[in-house]
Design brief:
homodimer; Rossmann fold; seven-stranded parallel β-sheet; 7 strands; 12% strand
Chain lengths: 313, 313
C-alpha cells in the first residue's frame, strides 16, 4: 500500500518529495521495497559516484558541501548521502541533516540525505547503494557519499564509489598511520584539508612517500595529494579537476567497467546475505536461540553446535 | 592435520606458542578451526574483556600498552588484540606488531596480536572474539581489544567487551561530534588523552554535557570522563579504577549476565551468517554469478532477481 504512494514516473522526472519518500521506504525495509528498486533499476547507471571519507574532524562535510556547490555551478544536479554512524536514540542523523541544510541552502538541484548506520536492520552499504540508485534514477548527475570514520563498513561504502577521495588534515598523522588505517588502498587520491595549518607540507610529503612505495607501472593510476582549505573554498576546483582526471583514466583504461562489475558482485553478495538473514531469523528460530542461550553461557553447549543445530532445522 | 599441531592441553596451560598458533589457525579459517574452538569453549568465560576505541591518533596503542603494564604490576596476565584495518598488501598488521613489541618488551605475561580487518574472509568481530576465547582459555585474566577508527565493525568489536573505553583527544572535536560518530552509545566511559594540550578542559566539559542529556535514573550507570596523558603514564591508574568501578556495577546490577547474553546472541547470528555464506558461495554459484554479471550491468537483469535466482537453486 505504502508502495503505491511512491509514483515511479514522478521519481524518474526528478520530483524531490518522491525521492525523499523512496529513500525512507527503502531505509525502513518496507515490504515491496525490492520490487520498487527492481522497477527503477533500469533507469540507473548514469550518475557518477564519488566517495568522500576520512577521519572525524577532517572537514568532510564542509568539503562535500563546497564540492556540491561547484558542481551546481556546472549545472549538474547533486545528491549527497551522508552516513552518520548514529542510532535513532541520539538523533545524530537528523541533526546532521539540519546542520547541512543551512549550509547548502534550499537549492532544488541538491538533495541531501543522512543515513544512520547504527540500529539499521539490513546491511548499511546495501541501503546506501539503493539510496544512490534512487537519486541516479531521479536524474542526479553526481552522487557524493560522505562517510564519517575510517571503519570497515564506511570504507566499503566509499569503495562503492567510482572515485574515492580520502580527506586528511595535518593532525591526522603521517603516511604510516593512513596506511595502518587502510586508507591507502581505497584512496584514488588524497586531500590534505585545512592545509593552512602548520605541518601541512610535511604531512603531504609523508603521504606521497608512502604512495610511491605502491607497486605501479606507467599504465596504472597514480594517486596524488591535493591541498585544500575547504572552509574558505580554497582547492575545491583542484579537487574537482582531480576527480575528473580520475574519471577519464577509468574510462580510457577500461577500469570503469571492471570496478562496476566488482562492485555489483559484492552488492549481490550483500543482497543474498540480507535475504537469507531475514528469512532465517523467523520467530521460531529466535525463540529457539533464546531458549538455548543460557546453556551456551553456562558452557553446556557451544555457540558452534547451537548454530549448526539452528541451520539444520 | 594442522589441527593436531595445536596441543589443547598445552594451550590450556598457557603455552605462548600454542596461543600464537591457535590464533593463526582460527584467523586463516583452517578446516577444523570450529572443532578446535568448540573443544576449548568450556574453558572460556573467565577473562575480563575491555574494549579500547576512538579516532586514529588518539593514542590508543600507548594507552593500551600502559594499561597492560599496570595490570601486569597486579600480577594479571594480559592479552592484547589490536585490530588494524589493513590488508596483507600493506602489511600494516605486521608492522603494528613490531612497533608494539618494542614497547611492552618481552614480558611473558603479555600476549599481543594484531589482526587485519581487510581482506579477511569471515566476519571480523567473529574472529576477534575467537582470538579472545583462545587467550581466555589459556588463562589470560584481562583481554584488551584495541580498535582503530570509529567505524561500524570496529564499534561492534568494542561492543563485544565487558567494559568499553572511548579514547579522545582535545582535537577530536566536541561532544556533538562524538555523538555523531556513535561513540556516546558504546562508551562505558571516556578518556580525554593528551590532556596536557590546550582545550582539554573544554572538551571534557562538552562531553560531560552531552552525557548528562542521556536518559538515566539512580540505578543506571553514569559514564564519566577521565583525563590522561598516557605517553607520560599519567591517569592510567584512574582509568584502571574506572574500569574496576564499571566492572563492580555490572556485577552488582545483573547487567553483566545481560550483556554477555546479548553478545552471545549477536555472536551466534554472526556464526550462522558465516556458515551460510561459506556454504552458499560454492564454485557453481560463483560461476553463475560471473555469467549473469554482464546482464545486470547492461540493465537486462536486476541484482534482486539474480539474487533470488541464486537463492532458489
Amino acid at each position: 500500500m505504502v508502495k503505491n504512494s511512491i509514483d515511479v514516473s514522478k521519481l524518474l522526472a526528478g520530483d524531490r518529495r518522491s525521492v525523499a519518500r523512496a529513500i525512507s521506504f527503502v531505509e525502513n525495509e518496507n515490504a515491496g521495497a525490492e520490487q520498487f528498486l527492481s522497477e527503477i533499476y533500469q533507469h540507473t547507471g548514469n550518475a557518477y559516484r564519488i566517495g568522500i571519507t576520512g577521519p572525524p574532524g577532517a572537514g568532510k562535510s564542509t568539503l562535500t558541501n563546497k564540492l556540491a556547490r561547484y558542481y551546481r555551478s556546472q549545472n549538474l544536479k547533486v545528491g549527497i548521502i551522508a552516513v552518520d554512524p548514529t542510532s535513532p536514540f541520539t538523533g545524530g542523523a537528523l541533526l546532521g541533516d539540519r546542520v547541512r541544510m543551512s549550509e547548502v541552502e534550499m537549492d532544488q538541484g541538491v538533495f541531501i540525505r543522512s543515513m544512520a548506520s547504527r540500529g539499521s536492520l539490513g546491511g548499511l552499504s546495501k541501503k546506501t547503494r539503493e539510496a544512490a540508485d534512487i537519486l541516479d534514477a531521479a536524474g542526479f548527475h553526481i552522487i557524493l557519499f560522505e562517510t564519517v570514520g575510517v571503519g570497515q563498513s564506511e570504507l566499503d561504502i566509499a569503495g562503492a564509489a567510482d572515485t574515492t577521495v580520502v580527506v586528511l588534515v595535518p593532525e591526522s598523522g603521517d603516511g604510516i598511520q593512513a596506511m595502518k588505517a587502510g586508507l591507502m588502498e581505497i584512496a584514488d587520491f588524497f586531500v590534505m584539508n585545512k592545509s593552512d595549518r602548520p605541518g601541512a607540507d610535511q604531512a603531504v610529503m609523508s603521504i606521497k612517500m608512502i604512495l610511491g612505495f605502491r607497486p605501479h607501472d606507467e599504465h596504472s593510476w597514480m594517486a596524488d595529494v591535493v591541498k585544500s582549505t575547504a572552509s574558505e573554498g580554497l582547492g575545491i576546483e583542484k579537487i574537482a579537476s582531480e576527480i575528473s582526471r580520475h574519471r577519464n583514466f577509468l574510462a580510457s583504461s577500461g577500469e570503469f567497467e571492471k570496478r562496476r562489475s566488482k562492485q555489483m558482485k559484492s552488492r549481490i553478495e550483500e543482497i543474498v546475505s540480507d535475504k537469507f538473514t531475514i528469512t532465517f531469523w523467523n520467530s521460531d528460530r529466535k525463540q529457539q536461540l533464546d531458549q538455548l542461550l543460557s546453556k551456551i553461557i553456562s558452557r553446556n553447549r557451544t555457540p558452534y553446535d547451537v548454530a549448526e543445530e539452528l541451520l539444520k532445522k
